[in-house]
């Protein structure tokens, strides 16, 4: 965008004339209103930066924590084909985390800092990943419903006002679309299989349907960040709008699958041209958010352990990078600093390194 850059702002220094911030904010507001992208070096309000970091961190954390429930089934996939698909999918989720941590780094917040906050329980990830995967059919239900809900949420984020986030979402959505289809195809195979397989598919859908609807967040009138995010064009549609869209997409898909959505109040409303659906148990949602879901503790413990066990990989990556950036004739340091003590270089002024 042709807005004022952070460098220009810095040059203006502390003795910026009174009203300068208002002028910068006016340029920012005009850029957002004109659907221009805000880029890392552009001036932006502190609250916009903080809101984006919060959202991208939560999103990145959800991607990597979300690897756990499905990875649980890799060794037990019923065929080589299913195993290869599931491994590719779980690996994609790691990649999504990577793009999003990198996008957050463009705002001057390093990956190590965000991971520390996740491990300390100071930043959240999507509540959906605190539910267990009890049967193989859960892999299908997650693909169809959880990745499906993620796409519904994320397609509008491809038009988010912050450039690096929007661009990361374009690729993520393409991959999520594959995830959703593999889940649907898996459930279809089970649904058309033996009565026991059909029952397993139905049971998985029964357990994942309501938590999937909760993925869109609290109702609009109880959503703390929604209104401001929409003004900044980070968010394009309200939680309730997206939830409704998801329900309307899922109903005909469930019919084609030969499966029932577990909601006796679900019916077409001719007048609204949308489906009515039953009340969501927000009490359950808040309990899971508070840490009282079936798997909260297990997920965080496993994440911390994976991080500790991966320390040698980060150390090796730093040592390798240092070896290759050393000038000819100049010996690489004998012992590289541990990666966890030396996060990826991020300029203090919030400049991008990703
Ligand atoms: Fe993902
Ligand atoms: Fe996914």
TrEMBL record:
Q: For bias kind Low complexity, which ranges apply?
A: 331-347
* Pfam families named in the record: PaaA_PaaC
Biased composition annotated in UniProt, kind: Polar residues:
1-11
Region (Disordered) location: 1-20, 322-354
Positions the record marks as coiled coil are none
- The entry's protein name is 1,2-phenylacetyl-CoA epoxidase subunit PaaA
Q: What is the lineage of its organism?
A: Bacteria, Bacillati, Actinomycetota, Actinomycetes, Kitasatosporales
Name of the coding gene: paaA
